[in-house]
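User: structure tokens for this one?
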Amino acid sequence: MKDKKVIKDIFVEGAINPDKIAKSIANHSTKTGIGGHSIFLGQIRDDVKPEGKVIAIEYTAYRDMALEKAREIREDIFAKYELSCMHIYHSLGNVKVGEICLFVFTSSAHRKAAIEACNELVERIKAELPIWGKEILDNDAEVWKVNR
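Assistant:
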């Protein structure tokens, strides 16, 4: 019987707490073979649209498909770059302006691999994961977000 690969849950309900980010960084201090980390934090902007000003984004996902695709992307990135570790966390639910909705963290013996892997990981998450954001505006209107 073939072993089923464990699919890591990348989703966090609501905003990603800064304490979670700090703890994740602190947990790597004992991994002394790491020489560089690259971190991307996606934060909700207060964009002004013709329909109103953004005050939050409500994230939804096709969860099973998103987790499977995230696993595939992780495997691709690990195969391409010499990484020690990689973490992905993405919000679901309501995230207010100024709060963190995406936390990507890569670590390697050398900074170049960590930086390049982090950049590619963020681009692939934005382009390939079935996650949608509905912008909540200050006048109670809602607009589906288009990733750029």
